[in-house]
Amino acid sequence: MPESSSKNNSLNSQIENFLSTFSLTRTKALLRGILYSTLKMELAVIVDRDICNREYPYSYSEYTKEQNEIVFSCGRVFRFVIDNEADFFEMKETLPLLVSGEFCDDAAPVSKGMDRELRCIDPTVPESYFEDAFCEVSPYE
């Protein structure tokens, strides 16, 4: 169930205030969210909002194209799906660890710009989560 407009605005403000502590500012609106980045694009955060809303479908290929362009134009990119306070809390806990390099993930590291298809047939953990979520809401199965 979608959040009310005032709750949404409040959450958007909280997100912007938090990201400003990393010198991230709103750069542009995206298909399903907002891009925040530093001035020289050495660090960027994609905040996806309402990504699983079936009332407003979008093209998966357009979505991935948009995000791939961001990944290849920025130094470091992190992506979060934030639809509620719990998601925001998770971002607040995780982003500082990611930025500082202290985050530990058991998944194999993937180098930026390499063709994983040639070496890895299994998706990364985030790819797997996204694929599962997308399949659950996609009307095109």
Quickly list its features:
alpha+beta; 4 strands; 42% helix
Summarize this, please?
This protein is of the alpha+beta class. It has helices spanning 5-20, 60-73, 85-100, 125-137, and strands at residues 25-29, 33-37, 43-48, 76-81. The chain has one domain (2-113).
Overall description:
By secondary structure, the chain is of the alpha+beta class. It has one domain. Helix content is 42%, strand content 16%. It is built from four helices and four strands, in the order αβββαβαα.
Number of E-state strands: 4
Q: On the 0-100 scale, what is the average pLDDT? A: 80
SSE ordering: HEEEHEHH
Q: DSSP helix count?
A: 4
Radius of gyration, rounded?
15 Å
| First and last CA, distance | 23 Å
Strand content: 15-25%
**Overall SS class:** alpha+beta
The largest sheet has its strands arranged as 1-2-3-4
Count of the separate structural domains: 1
Low-confidence stretches: none
Summarize the amount of helix as a percent range. Answer: 40-55%
Shape: globular
**Strand count, sense and closure of the main sheet?**
4 strands, mixed
Topology (SSEs and partners):
Blueprint: H1 5-20, E1 25-29, E2 33-37, E3 43-48, H2 60-73, E4 76-81, H3 85-100, H4 125-137
